[in-house]
Amino acid sequence: MRWQLRAVPCMESTETMPAAAIIIRSLTKVYGSLTALDHFDLEVVQGSIFGLLGPNGAGKTTLIRILTTLMRQSSGTAVIEGFDSLRDGREIRRRIGVVSQENSLDRYLTARENLELHARLHGLAKRQYQPRIDHLLELMGLSGRQKDFPDTFSGGMQRRLVIARALVHQPQVLFLDEPTTGLDPQSRRAVWEYIRSLAGSMTIFLTTHYLEEAEQLCDRIAIMDHGRLIALGSTQELKDRLSGATVYEIEFAGQSADQYARLLADMSCVIGISRAERSVTVTLECWECLSEIVTALNGAAIRRISLKERTLEDVFISLTGEKVRE
Ligand SMILES: Nc1ncnc2c1ncn2[C@@H]1O[C@H](COP(=O)(O)OP(=O)(O)O)[C@@H](O)[C@H]1O
Ligand SMILES: [Mg+2]
After folding, report:
1. Are residue 149 and residue 267 in the same domain, yes or no?
2. Looking at residue 38, what is its pLDDT?
3. Domain end marker among 241, 258, 290
4. Is the CB of 57 within 6 Å of ligand 1?
5. Of 17, 90, 92, 216, most Cβ neighbours within 10 A?
6. pLDDT for 17-26, tens place per residue?
7. Does residue 85 sit in the same domain as residue 36?
8. Most ligand 1 atoms within 8 A of CB, residue of 28, 29, 30, 31 to mutate
9. What is the CATH number of the domain that holds 154?
10. pTM of the full predicted structure?
11. 259-310: per-residue pLDDT in tens?
């Protein structure tokens, strides 16, 4: 049965946003006594690049496995392109591409044969899949190595081949579970380029624990931990969610940092302070307090006052804590 695709209402205006490619309602997965997914709710708009962030063990792979019909949920619903994950597995599998956390390439087939096998499993005719495979090998920069076996490839090339394989049957939704884990920075950037080049032509749902990756690629980001959704928005919206406090670094020209650090520490609008050799970093209750600080520093030899921008990592740590996982 095909669900009616529902337009997602936009909160700020009466306009409607594009239809949802993925609708998740109260999705729960229990492994014995462990609740890996806990009443998880999410909607992903068609054509967007969506990033799911979370520390190890947060439940990212569990969620992807349910959405890609590799595993059944304990309760709740997941609808992909209008199809229900429990009832319409076949329909969903025809419409999705999956790049799992581990590269699952057939080592006894060449790169091209890996793609051809996938095409045949999806019931494509040779005349359909041959030009498509040529195009994908070109797109992923693997044309020159198509007759080689995957074992002879670098980690980055194997990853690109797995992505190419997931695209052979022209999926509407592409799932990527930690697409760049274990890759060196150059290969990671190359994979980002390929993912970006797909933007708009399909919905992309990726998981990662690299904050920079989410920031670079994703239109919207969800942060999850302990099986629950804890934050959702664009990178900027997530950064704005942190308290209104702002942090400034004040660099002194002479040896006066000590003297002014003491003076600043006593001010009521300063809620945090730290010192380096020639500079003092102050956390202010709000940006309006800056003028009080400037007045207090009247006459000081100041080289620079700079605003310290928040990073997505600040948001992530503030939401998930500093404790190391698993
Ligand atoms: N097949 C399984 N059986 C039992 N526990 C599992 C299984 N798969 C995952 N888990 C547990 O569920 C939690 C979520 O795991 P996972 O979805 O792999 O998280 P992530 O991908 O975010 O690292 C972890 O505590 C993990 O140990
Ligand atoms: Mg995982």
Report:
1. no
2. 97
3. 241
4. yes
5. 92
6. 679 999 999 9
7. yes
8. 31
9. 3.40.50.300
10. 0.80
11. 899 999 999 988 888 888 899 999 888 778 889 999 999 888 999 999 887 7
Cβ of 58 closer than 6 Å to ligand 1, yes or no, is yes
Which residue type occupies 60? K
CA of 170 to the centre of ligand 2 (A): 25
- Please check whether residue 315 lies inside any domain of the structure: no
The beta strand positions in 184-226, using DSSP E, are 203-208, 220-225
Q: How far apart are CA 129 and CA 167, in angstroms?
A: 11
230 in Cβ contact with 224 (< 8 Å)? yes
Distance 320 CA to ligand 2 centre (A): 16
**59 CA distance to ligand 1 middle (Å):** 6
Looking at 216, 241, 266, the residue that finishes a domain is: 241
Locate 263 and state its tokens.
């003076």
Indicate if 108 and 17 belong to the same structural domain.
Answer: yes
Give yes or no for a contact between 219 and 50, defined as CB atoms under 8 angstroms apart. Answer: yes
Same domain, 228 and 88: yes
Task: Give the type of residue at 38.
Answer: D
